[in-house]
Write a structure and sequence with these properties.
By secondary structure, the chain is an alpha+beta fold. It has seven helices and nine strands, in the order H-H-H-H-H-H-H-E-E-E-E-E-E-E-E-E. The strands form two sheets. Strands 3-2-5-8-9 form a five-stranded antiparallel β-sheet, covered by helices on one side. It has a four-stranded antiparallel β-sheet with strand order 4-1-6-7, with no helix packed on it. Helix 4 packs antiparallel against helix 5. The longest helix has 36 residues. 16% of the residues are buried.
């Protein structure tokens, strides 16, 4: 057992970061970060958001997010309990179900007897051998249409001869050979659409087509190697920082 808030605050100050720096890095409002550090859970917007904020904050600081979620679940999370039902209500409910079951059984038995009597009086009718039911005709047509729509065996749907191999496209490659790193990657700039956001584990790699500029926010840049096309990106920041990757090369962001 450990103090969640104190541990987060110590890790942040040890890295020389302010709450405002963390807010810029992971886009969680500063008042929620303060609530996590002070363990003011009632100020956070619900348990699901609380767990997400907690994991993201811990991993941004280079901590094990799973440990913080486990500690939160053990000490703080709300655990639903089964409601208490008095034995008298259970017995009464069981009696009513027994009576209704008996009545339903008698009704079903009566319907079966009536049906047998009617069938014995009129006798079964034999359908004509040349008569096709509408349902059978519909099934046959549907099956034929489905078979006609299938591509020939061994072909790949929508496979065009003009498609270019992915290896011909210019790629941005981000690797984490020296440790895990939290990343936020957006198209064009800091307000662009999110391309990737999360933790890149040690030894893992991201391959991204460089169709447009990529704005990259890094929690631990020293863990990363980045190449744009065949050029390695040098001069990454030492602490959490940003870089803009373009076709012509990297730029400070």
């Amino acid at each position: 057992m450990f103090e969640i808030g104190d541990s987060l605050r110590e890790a942040r100050t040890r890295r020389g970061l302010s709450s405002a720096d963390v807010q810029k890095g992971i886009r969680i409002r500063e008042r929620y970060l303060t609530a996590l550090e002070e363990e003011r859970w009632e100020l956070l917007p619900g348990e699901a958001y609380t767990k997400g904020f907690l994991r993201q904050y811990a991993e941004f600081l280079g901590l094990n997010g799973n440990l913080y979620i486990d500690e939160y679940n053990a000490r703080i999370a709300v655990h639903d309990e089964e409601p208490f039902v008095p034995d008298s209500l259970v017995a009464a409910h069981g009696t009513r179900r027994g009576v209704l079951g008996t009545i339903m059984g008698i009704a079903v038995l009566g319907a079966i007897i009536a049906g047998l009597a009617a069938w014995g009086t009129s006798g079964p009718s034999k359908p004509s051998a040349n008569t096709k039911t509408p349902a059978a005709t519909h099934v046959a047509k549907s099956g034929a249409a489905a078979a006609a729509a299938l591509p020939p065996t061994g072909t790949t749907p929508n496979a065009g001869s003009s498609a270019k191999p992915a290896t011909l496209a210019k790629m941005t490659v981000i690797q984490a050979p020296r440790g895990r790193c939290w990343l936020s990657i957006r198209a064009g700039g800091p307000n662009g659409a999110i391309v990737f956001e999360g933790v890149l584990e040690q030894g893992k790699m991201l391959r991204l087509p460089l169709r447009h500029d990529l704005w990259v926010r890094m929690g631990a840049p020293t863990a990363l190697d980045i190449t744009v096309g065949d050029k390695r990106v040098n001069g990454l920041p030492v602490q959490a920082g940003n870089v803009l990757l373009t076709r012509s090369g990297p730029h400070a962001a």
